[in-house]
Fold these 2 entries.
Entry 1:
Amino acid sequence: MDEQDLVYLTNYIGGSFVEHSGRDWMDVLEPATGRVYAKVPLSGPGTIDSAVEAAREAQPGWGSLSPDDRADWLDKIADQLESSYEEIALLESRDTGKPISLARSLDASRSVTNFRFFAGMIREQEPEIFDTDDSTNYVLYKPVGVGALITPWNLPLYLLSWKVAPAIGMGNTVVCKPSELTPMTADLLMRAVDSVGLPAGVINLVHGDGIGAGAPLVEHPDVDLVSFTGGTSTGEKVASSAAPMFKKVSLELGGKNSSIVFADCDMEDTVAGVVRSGFLNQGQVCLCGSRVLVEDSIYDEFEEKFVESVEALSIGDPSDESTQLGALISKEHLQKVRGYVDLALEEGGTILTGGEPCLPSDLGGGNWMAPTVISGLSPHSRCSTEEIFGPVVTLHRFETDDEALEIANCTRYGLAGSVWTSNLERGRRFSESIETGMVWINAWLHRDLRVPFGGVKDSGVGREGGKWSLGFFSEAMNVCVKHN
Ligand code: TXE
């Protein structure tokens, strides 16, 4: 692409698109081809200061609107995003390398739904009143102040909208810092916000990398809360700089989730569900089931059918409607994922399928990796316990429920899981013993936005989703009125 055809992104501060005054820019690459098609500003602390100041100025006015008025604004943004539904899908597919069909059904659709859903929740909040013999207590949910919203590259607008909607819905103002690898739909959101005329400073956007923009945003003394989704080691840094300033922090971090397959499962549905759970978005979803535990008596049959289904996945051009698997986010990430395949061999694993980079013709510059299934590894091996975050699934045998539970719990992560059985009582009993924040029985990523979302152990701190988001993005205050 010629230099003049590149898109140069701008920040959005105090209701204006602000051109980057610094000299540092980063290339935005198409993961499918490796071609540069845009430039993202690498903003620094000065820009963060301006954005936080704009958010701080706007907060009292915005926070004094009624919840219903703020919910109306969320609906306006949802309507505007919905009118750009196809553009969201195209940008997200190009920016992340994911199949266009997935970008429509998952990213575009959920980004609109997030705004509508939280508009509804905010309107429907019930008053909380507790009477005693001689007093009445009531609870106020006040805005926290200015929020820093930091998001990753795997589900860019989906995750940003998941934070922005409840944050501003509860009366906060925000500064968004999307992943520098996938900035395009955050820009689209700012265009939507601008065109509906949201009051200036309520939503601000600063592009940049983690060190230059993310860290100063978290450390900023005028930022009152931080909602972060990303890698566990970045989460550690965010937590350690936010904690001494007593900021409210929510961390949604990595996962190494188990899919537990019992002998009495419906084989066909389970294979389809576990393949989807392992490989959706090229395995780059924190909820992906990347370790599959299968009861010994059906292991051989399951392995054969599973590998057959994985080999049938169509990998290729993300813009092709029939593509099921696209490219990985970056060269560095591809290298990390391939490193784990090499490690699997060293750890005694057998590659049943994949393991190689695969280069769809004419997309040779992209970050391609065949979906990979590995057997024969100890469930305690690094490959079976560390987050790979790519199209790599390990298979393990178990004989008893106790053994399955020990394997399911032997990672530092505890985000999600799925259990596959026709005995729902056994499924519930087993599920409740897994050290995890979320578990599905005979399903995966079957989302109800009202439920708590988040993990235990190294998968994070806190919960978002439904009323948990409303709680996180507000300060609950008790007023006690003594009766005369
Ligand atoms: O994420 P980072 P990366 C996992 C996955 C992946 C690993 C690293 O295993 O391989 O994390 O991915 C911003 N202060 N997940 O390096 O760095 C950064 O600019 C403040 C799981 O891409 O965590 C981006 O906006 N912010 C995950 C965001 O943090 C900082 C999804 C996430 O980037 C910062 C993605 C700092 N010091 C990766 N450093 C999930 N939970 O879904 C970086 N950032």
Entry 2:
Amino acid sequence: MTAQTALAVTPPTLDVERIRADFPILRNVHPHGKPLVYLDNAASGQMPQPVIDRLVRYQTHEHANIHRGVHTLSETATAAYEDARRRVQKFLNARQEREIVFTSGCTEGVNLVMHGYGRRFIGEGDEIVITWLEHHSNIVPWQMLCEERGAKLKVVPIDDRGDVILEEYERLVGPRTKLVAITHVSNALGTVNPVKQMIAMAHAHGVPVLIDGAQAVPHVAVDVQDLDCEFYAFSGHKIFGPTGSGALYGKAEWLEKMQPFKGGGDMILSVTFEKTTYNAIPAKFEAGTPPIAAMIGLGEALDYVGRIGLDAIAAHEHELLAYATEKMSAVDGVRLIGTARQKASVLSFYVGEVHPHDVGTLLNEDGIAVRTGHHCAQPVMQRFKVPATARASFALYNTFEEVDALVASVRKVQQLFA
Ligand code: C6P
């Protein structure tokens, strides 16, 4: 189910205070002596106690290397790691466990597809279609590939609201297109792309699709079978798991055809100096000792989100975003960057002529954490003719009072520079 359909039904309400109690950092950190108002969730989410506890339990009782030992600890660690894979499979509703490749995050997932699929199947004169909304991690790998292979990057423009222009997309996908690689939710603007429709449009030309789900998974229920995408990449730390964790979903038939991205231990069946035979998927793509604890933590984080329910989370965040949009729009001199029809979590803004870095510094004095800068999406900044924005991004534990604190602080900034 997508964000669009999720909001059409009446979802259960969130007990936000109870949820906040699960996140120790929210009560333990006081920037400038003020309670922390954490609105930088698009950069990284905070970790709930069950995930912290799981990491401690793993390190205290279960750690050993995986897939390599017959001793009890190794078997325990292996079972926990593979159980985490099943949790990712369930979370994304993938058909099979072997369609889940653990990665260090979304960036590695995209790079894996670039090396594994791109270098095998994309050649001179072929085209890769992305959108103007992409994060650098879904631009730069494709530029590298284009340079190496003589392929061409085609970029679907966005309109003044920050919505992808679908007619242009339709025009750009054609017989030369070998891959569509698009973000599900824009990190700089919050635009929710109509990915299901875009995937179907690509498939009409027989083109496989990679979805960058980094900003979607904490906010939108994702069902890869329903979307029917070939690849879906995300990072664990944005969905309340550890940094260094993440996953790439890939349809088994594609993962099987792809070449491994990294060579090393665990991704082989046999090695001689003459020839190496690769392991089956997903091990083929998981060379070396992985961050075992991080993946186990990721599995726990996905279960945590699953227990609360993404429909309820999406509805709460939608209300927060609507409230914040209305309140911020009423502040003199505030310009919102990105007003797409469907948005998730992100409010990017400019206050008068004040540089966003100054805005961020002043908000921090009130205990409010936002991100300022180009958000690793420089083409989006260029499109809106701004060098940077201040960006508030919401998560399940944010409250309306925190939005009020943000607006009051922005008002102070505006008055200071008026
Ligand atoms: N965006 C932000 O503040 P990694 O760094 O691999 O976990 O995620 C990369 C990435 C890929 N796609 C999108 C849409 C993203 O937003 C991000 C990470 C953070 O917006 C850090 S730049």
